[in-house]
Amino acid sequence: MSTDLSSPSKRRRQMHRSLRTVGASALLMLLVVLLPAPTLTARHDAWHMPMHLALETMAIVLASLVFAVVYSSARHTRLPTHVLLLGHAFLGVALLDFAHMLSYAGMPVFITPNSPDKSIVLSLAARLLAALALLGAAMSPWNGQAPPAVRGRGQRPVGMIIAGFVVLVLLLALGAPALLPTAFIPGQGPAGWKIGAEVLLIALYLWAAVVFCGHARHPHGTDARRLFVASSLMAMGSLLFALYEQVTDLTVLLGHAYTTLACVFVFRAVFGQTVRRPYALLHASEQRLTATLNALPDLFFEFDGHGRYLRLHTGNLEQLHGPTGGVQGKSLAEILPAEAARTAYAALDEAREHGVSRGKVIDLGEAAGNHRWFELSVSYKRVQDDQGERFFMLSRDVTTRQRDEQSLHLLSEAVEQSPVAIVITDVQARIEYVNKAFTRNSGYTQEQVLGCNPSLLQSGKTAPSTYRAMWERLGKGQSWSGELVNRDSAGREYTESVLIYPVRNPQGAVTHYLAHKEDVSEKKRSAERIQHLSQYDQLTGLPNRSLLQEQFLHARSRSESLALLWLDLDHFKDVNDALGHSMGDLLLLEMAHRLRATLRPQDMLTRQSGDEFIALLPDIGQGELAQLAERLLRTLDQPLQLAGQEIALSASMGIALYPDDAREFDDLLKNAETAMYRVKQDSRNSYCFFTPAMQEHSARTLALASALKLALARNELHLVYQPQIALEDGRVVGAEALLRWHSAQWGAVSPAEFIPIAESGGLIVPIGEWVLRTAMAQLVAWRAQGLPPLRIAVNLSAVQFNQVELPALVSRVLQETGARADELELELTEAATMKNPQAAAAQLQRLGELGVRLAIDDFGTGHSSLSYLKRFFLHALKIDQSFVRDIETDADDQAITGAIVDLARSLGLATVAEGVESAEQLAFLRARGCTHVQGYYFSRPLPPEQFHTFVQRSEREGVRAA
């Protein structure tokens, strides 16, 4: 043990103090034992558990510290045998006490359910180990240092025996709790064997105390006196543990308090031996360290816990920021710039928490722009309580290194974050570096490609000549650029735009190759998509007009004859309006499929727009072309199911031949379109070849359309009126207003020619309004001239009828002209009403509410629905002249005409027969009950003045045949 050189009298005083401590503790224990039983056994559940945990925790910590100081000192110096024994044993005591604390009733389950038995057994085992350790320490030789064999490997047998004991106890208590004997009987107290165990422990502790008391007389007896006190307190604690009745009794807590206090004395005894002796060695070490620090070229500082300079170890104060002297006693904040001070304080905090801090860098010239960087290495030391904390800082000037690192970091980050893949290889093309863009594009990690050849990316799609050209240039020390088709780690092919150039050393020799690689796959796909969009129809996938023109130029150079076939679906707009555009798109897809399947493999089918398709047919004769056109018509005519309905479409086709009809693409295309429109006008569901006459007709149509735009402004339009006769009494009851155009350039133009032009060109609405206003103004003028009441019939085109503002226009015209509503009859065709019957019914309702009469013109020539007809707000049906023309001889015309008259009569409608030209026709119509007629038999359409005269004569003489 320690060699105490104090006088015998001082040793006696110390021994008396130890005895007084033991005596006071025994007296306190006696008082507690003599207290009334209710006081001792009173339950203190509210505070027993916290107090128990606190005392146990303190005992565990102290026992652990005993081991810690012994273990730490034994690594550096030889210790007496009893010190080593106490160090190892009290580690076991700490572990067993910790398990005892966790096993206490009321604590969370510790491996197996907690119980008083488990907790008591673990506590007994811990105190038994402490008793044996104290007795062993007392019996050890007390002649100073332990022999050399005890240091190092000599510690292991003792440690292994103690560890085995601890493990055995823990396995028994925690692994097989059922094998534990009953240590505590509720309501009675400790079991008999437990009391016997406590008596055994008391004996062991007192034995150790007597031996320690004998050692205390010697000069080295300071630590023996502390162990004497510890053994005595342990004995008293065991006595108290044998006397309680409930685990929450006051005696239990006092027993733990005695045990904890005993651990304090054991720790003081061990601490005195393990720490005091190294002080002399530490002083010598400090002297050597000071000499070493003074020789260092770096700045070395010592700081207190508040960051104040205590000592400097440097002769180069110019490295400091600010004044060159007087730093001692000042804080880091007073000496360093603000940011540098914050970094230094952070290093102190890190060292305080972890013991050391390395790598933090401060900038002492940041404010002045003259940067000087210092790297800080800080260690922390906790000194005696009156001195607080100490920090030791080594400050190394790393300005040059920091500047180099910044430059290198900037370059590295630029390369690493570049969106372009960068690869560096040696002259043998072995990869030495790749950046993130490369790994992102290729899918390979840096570890996978280092040392490999870039050929691992080859897909086999790049021509070998490309690689030969690349290495030819690189072999000459020249750069190379081009495109490579590579394959990533997942097998995806992608195209890279690559630039490779050699890297040379200062002597000019090529040492590496550097490649910039950009993935241009998406750019190429985008370009291809743009090209596809510009050359292909998005709905059908067929080529469009631009690609058709390219193919025409190509085919023209190889073929002597070509044909362009322009195909337009008939009445496709009706399908779109009835079923919607999505169904219309499906129909177009089906038609495109049928056309492509019918055409020859060498033919090119394109979609122009809407429902128009154009086919380029190379090397085909006119006869074969006609047969192909008929096959196409039959193919398209096959019905198909669409939206639950059976749809059958026809088509109109126009054909133009190269070089007969035109030599240039645009001219040939225009001629094919012209032929198609001729089919539309004539019959539909057919085809025809282009002729020069069609071109003349197209030119005339275009010229008429231009002239018609100026016809109103030039007063070239006028109205004529055809009388309508009532068969009941032969009177003139009205007239149909008919539009005529006499062009200054073209002369008289037939309505059959210019009205379709007006409808297709959007002129029919303003012309229709002019007709309505002119007719009503003329009617008012006739009335003022004394003519009897008349009714004027005005034709409405489908475009006019579908105008939302039509009722408002009619009302406004009647008001402005002064005509009465019942003097106006509006005529519209079946096609106009049946296109959208529900909307037509609503429009007719609004017009009827104005008071005007409504008539269906050319009835029987369209596709009427009688279910809708009875819902329409009508006054008359007009029988088309095609049924009247052969009514004397044609039984079908007679039947149809009679049916129309009968239908009108049953619906309460008047009938007006058009085109009556003979007495026989008139007689038949009168006999079948037709109410009104008009036609050349009575009069041609007349100008206003002649119509006025016709009506006056009819009033005087009656209506006569013309």
How would you sum up this structure, described in words?
The protein is of the alpha+beta class and 962 residues long. It folds into 5 domains: 8-143 and 152-276, Rhopdopsin 7-helix transmembrane proteins; 280-404, PAS domain (Beta-Lactamase); 418-525, Beta-Lactamase (2-Layer Sandwich); 536-690, Reverse transcriptase/Diguanylate cyclase domain (Alpha-Beta Plaits, 2-Layer Sandwich); 718-956, EAL domain (TIM Barrel, Alpha-Beta Barrel). Helices cover 51% and strands 18% of the residues. It has 34 helices and 28 strands. It has an 8-stranded mixed beta barrel with strand order 20-21-23-24-25-26-27-28, surrounded by 4 helices. It has a 5-stranded antiparallel sheet with strand order 4-3-7-6-5. Strand 3 (299-304) and strand 4 (309-312) form a beta hairpin. Helix 1 (8-34) runs antiparallel to helix 9 and helix 20 packs antiparallel against helix 21 (622-637). The longest helix has 30 residues, at 45-74. It is elongated.
